[in-house]
Amino acid sequence: MARVLSRDPVDIENILALNPRKQRHATLHSTAAKKQAKKQWKRNSDKSCSNCEKLENNFDDIKHTTLSERGALREAMRCLKCADAPCQKSCPTDLDIKSFITSIANKNYYGAAKMILSDNPLGLTCGMVCPTSDLCVGGCNLYATEEGPINIGGLQQFATEVIKDSDSIPSPTVHVFKAMNIPQIRNPSLPPLEDMPEAYHVKIALLGAGPASLSCASFLARLGYSNITIFEKQEYVGGLSTSEIPQFRLPYDVVNFEAELMKDLGVKIVFSKGLAMDGMTLRTLKEDGYEAVFIGIGESHYNIIFTQNSLLQLLLKVKADKYVLNGLPEPNKDSIFQGLRMDQGFYTSKDFLPLVAMASKPGMCACHSPLPAIHGTVIVLGAGDTAFDCATSALRCGARRVFVVFRKGFTNIRAVPEEMELAKEEKCEFLPFLSPRKVVLRGGQIVGMQFVRTEQDDDGNWKEDEDQIVHLKADVVISAFGSILSDKKVREAMAPVKFNRWGLPEVDPETMQTSEPWVFAGGDIGGLANTTVESVNDGKQASWYMHRYIQSLHGVAVSPVPELPLFYTPIDSVDISVEMAGLKFQNPFGLASATPTTSSSMIRRAFEAGWGFAVTKTFSLDKDIVTNVSPRIVRGITSGPIYGPGQGSFLNIELISEKTAAYWCKSIAELKADFPNHILIASIMCSYSKEDWTELSKLAEVAGADALELNLSCPHGMGERGMGLACGQDPELVRNICRWVRQAVQIPFFAKLTPNVTDIVNIAMAAQEGGADGVTATNTVSGLMGLKADSTPWPAVGAGLRTTYGGVSGSAIRPIALRAVSAIARALPGFPILATGGIDSAESGLQFLHSGASVLQVCSAIQNQDFTVIDDYCTGLRALLYLKSIEELEDWDGQSPATMRHQKGKPVPRIADLMGKKLPSFGPYLEQRKNIIAENKIKLKEQSMAAMLPQKRHFIPKKPIPSIKDVIGKALQYIGTYGELCNTEQVVALIDEEMCINCGKCYMTCNDSGYQAIQFDPETHLPTVTDSCTGCTLCLSVCPVIDCIRMVSRTTPYQPQRGLPLPCSPVR
To answer: What is the DSSP track for 766-808?
Structure first.
């Protein structure tokens, strides 16, 4: 029997077995069956601890905030970029969070890193360890919405971090900015070092290489100081960040990376030398010629003596966290621990965490030290971040069970919620309201502890109830009750600095100056900083006032308003100026003739923000003056149910400017007087009248406009008056209008074209023939935005709810605008084009430059945000140009390195290489993956050797850095007719099973919109591409994970499925 062509063959029916189908009946399965099925597909951890994940020697990233590029872009787009953003006000270092998230959303990762490092030289460290829920995230306005606040810490980390391929375990991470391998440089506006005034060559010492000192030294070096030395008693940088924050939260290469950036500016670090070592004191530093000193010592360095009684009072205070200085160095030991040793099973956090760090942080030291030998049950005492770091680290050292025991209740826990949640997920147990009384020893080894219950009375005082005694068995006890301070030698070395009642130096909280004007202090020793980011800010604050102090010694007045330099690299020196039609543009980005140029004062603010040019709102002769209707500018429907910024399109029925020609002419004169180097283009519109075009163009020229833009394209309203679109759709009218204006003025002018024509190239040719110096392509696309369920339109004007066809703008029309620009550029080589239509980033701007545009006009992106996006566009374009000169980065796509294997932003191993088969990441397969990884980690523990970080070598441009002129029209060589495309060089889809999240979107689109070429395993939900793949690329287009699907060259000849045989071979 002949096959029925309209039915799928058997092999396709088998492929379609799991394809979605219309539900015709209610589905029926027993509860027992559903309980079993749930286990098959479960992705999150099971509540039962019978199969807890083994974590020994697993120091891979565990932070929930870590983001892949996909996650970062989605989260950055969700950010509202608020006015007077509360998140920035809640950040100790005042990061411009709105701006760096804007850069991430625009895939300008260098711009984001620059923004972060400008205010926080340790921005990557802080992105990883900051208690963001209590700081920036706590102020996020999205807390008031259902979806909740932005993951600011994750975005901050991502700005300089991306996953590297995981060929083996453990897998390192590589930082995007670090991978660029570009040095920090001094402020380009500063004179050369040898020409700097004498005051900038004085000797400056910083004591301790912790966050406060690294920050202070970075800003001093940015200010221009060239003789800065940090003295560090250890053999590594970072202080507490290195020695006590575990590798799975903060890798050492992150800390070292930030220190290397500081050293790029000439800062020197001397190791194994510090205060009270080898006779170093403040007095000896003074004698050695140091004019200013910053004391940033803390962890393992300076100590204060507390009496046992005062210490206990501090520990039991409701606000004890205000007084316990965790970064300070001697462990706070209860008397019951006196005499106990590590070999008996007792550690303080100050013993335990540095041992773990040295064994797990590659590059921290040259030695190879093993992890502490932890086994059995561990009790961790304390409820701060350090206690939870001890708990999770103990699991990685071999502990079977961990109890976190603390004196107060859950509501009094000092640790940030993220830390506590991670410990909870790793099955640590929490025991509140217990105060240690006794350590139980047997045979010289710890076997347990005795506790008494604590209670809070009606006055809020905490008391211990001796009648309630609790016994816990344990093999190891780790005390993490904070730190006390006791080294008299260091205190003596700080003479003659005065001390306060807490035994800390007296420090002015605003200037960070001590009682000795030349000595400054911050971080732990300053007594105010409780977190890494606060220590960084202490150093930042001190740097400015050290600068003022040093300059005052040399009789130089310094601005009372702090002016700390930003972060700079060679990227910031890239020239992005461009010449077009005899005009020199500082950068190619300008304001389109639209809402951003509604008034001349707005143009003034835009120029002050850094925009290279502006086109005025279109104005007319007084006889053609208009009055707008309202509502008239609405969000587009192309973005779906996305509200707020980030709209993919807008629709407007706004007309030209309501302001008079006299207003605009006077404004042009004012703006050109104040901004002579900025290009100001006057946009004008008239009906088809030689007299009108002559009069208005001459008025604009006399006012001082650099050029004119002839609006021949407004798609609504004006056409009904015989203006705008009515003139721009007829080549003859366009040609004549351009001739009239050419006869009237000497300055350049550009015809603004409409996309609402059959062939825009014909219109451009007519403009060129009429004498135009170039064209603007294109104006908005005519459209009807939307109708409500009751059939009424939006926007709806007046009581009659009337509407009209308006202009659609934004990224939704970018493909139309790119086609127009490239078509004109191909037809009219060298003819200047001002591009507009969906330019919302440096990346999209570069697309238009590659398509043949010379400069770029922006509107909708500003409607979505504000004028400050220009900074992101300029840094992004400079970065894109600079990176083209680095041969080592040729495989990058713009600022994006190749996407490597990851799940949720964390590297994944090649399970197929470890065990010879593929496994998805859910249900029993996820458990298998975890077990395989755990076994491999233990093997690596036995094989591991000391690892040093590679020596830093900057990438040097080996090719010329392209100019804007060099990239204009670069893509035109790839654009042609369909007949020029090759149909013999075919591609097929390749799916990376390790990155696949098993959603089946590729499978469904291939089935119902493609070629039924993807199989979907009913057990593992792993998709497999068959030989039937035609390379259509639909699967890649709908895949939710970046680069999970790639298109690779087909290795076999492509044979199209014709359905029925051709009677003869087709002509190729």
So the answer is: HHHHTT-SEEEE--PEEE---B-TTS-BSS-BTTTTB---EEE
Could you tell me which residues come within 8 angstroms of residue 582 by beta carbon, excluding any fewer than 6 positions away?
Answer: 748
Question: Rounded to an integer, what distance in angstroms lies between the CA atom of residue 728 and that of residue 520?
Answer: 68
Q: Which of 608-622, 709-723, 926-940 has the lowest mean pLDDT?
A: 926-940
Inter-CA distances, 550 with 201, 205, 984, Å = 10, 13, 72
317: number of Cβ within 10 Å: 15
- Give the residue among 855, 850, 856, 857 at the shortest CA–CA distance from 822: 850
Contact 995, 1041 (CB under 8 A): yes
| Partner residues linked to 159 by β-bridges | none
Cα-Cα-Cα-Cα dihedral sign, residues 632, 637, 643, 647 = negative
Return the CA Rg of the chain: 34
Helix (H) or strand (E) holding 136: none
Amino acid code (one letter) for 112 = A
> CA of 282: how far to CAs of 151, 173, 227, 228, 369, in Å?
43, 40, 18, 16, 35
Q: How many whole angstroms separate alpha carbon 169 and alpha carbon 162?
A: 17
Cα gap 885→958, rounded to integer Å = 6
d(Cα 223, Cα 493) in Å, to the nearest integer? 29
> Exposure pattern of 841-867 as b/e (b: 16+ CB <10 Å)?
bbbbbbbbbbbbbbbbbbbbbbbbbbb
Task: Report the distance separating Cα 486 and Cα 304, nearest Å.
Answer: 4
DSSP conformation class of 594 = S
What is the rounded distance in angstroms from the CA atom of residue 636 to the CA atom of residue 634? 6
Distance between CA atoms of 533 and 130, rounded to whole angstroms?
Answer: 7
Separation of alpha carbons 20 and 1004, rounded Å: 8
Tell me the torsion sign for CA atoms 150, 153, 157, 159.
positive
Catalytic residue among 79, 91, 130, 714: 714
- pTM over cut 0.90: yes
Q: Is residue 714 among the annotated active site residues?
A: yes
Locate all alpha helices (DSSP H) within 172-287, ordered by sequence.
176-180, 211-223, 240-243, 252-263, 282-287
**Structure token pair of residue 283:** 């007095």
| 8-state DSSP, 883 | H
Task: Return the closest-CA partner of residue 122 out of 200, 8, 212, 233.
Answer: 212
C-alpha 1018/C-alpha 19 separation (Å) is: 11
Phi-psi region of 680 (alpha: psi -120 to 50; beta: other; left: phi over 0): beta
Tell me 676's DSSP state. T
* Six token digits for residue 163: 């996953």
Helices (H), 650-722: 661-674, 690-703
Top pLDDT among 60 and 299 is at: 60
User: How far apart, in Å, are the Cα atoms of 97 and each of 134, 154, 578?
Assistant: 15, 12, 31
pLDDT of residue 1: 62
Question: Residues 365-418: pLDDT tens digits?
Answer: 877 788 998 999 999 999 999 999 999 999 999 999 999 999 999 988 988 888
Residue pair 180/952 in contact (Cβ under 8 Å)? The answer is: no
Beta strands at 774-777 and 1045-1049: parallel, antiparallel or unpaired = unpaired
> How many other β-carbons are positioned within 10 Å of the β-carbon of residue 694?
16
CB contact burial 338-370 (16+ within 10 A = b; e otherwise):
eebeeebbbbbbbbbbbbbbbbbbbbbbeeeee
254-311 pLDDT, tens per residue? 999 999 999 999 999 999 999 999 999 999 999 999 999 999 997 444 433 333 333 3
pLDDT in tens, 422-477: 999 898 999 999 999 999 999 999 999 999 999 999 998 999 999 999 999 999 99
- If one counts every other C-beta atom within 10 angstroms of the C-beta of residue 222, the result is 23
Measured CA to CA in angstroms, residue 180 lies from 175, 218, 774, 956 at distances of 8, 20, 38, 10
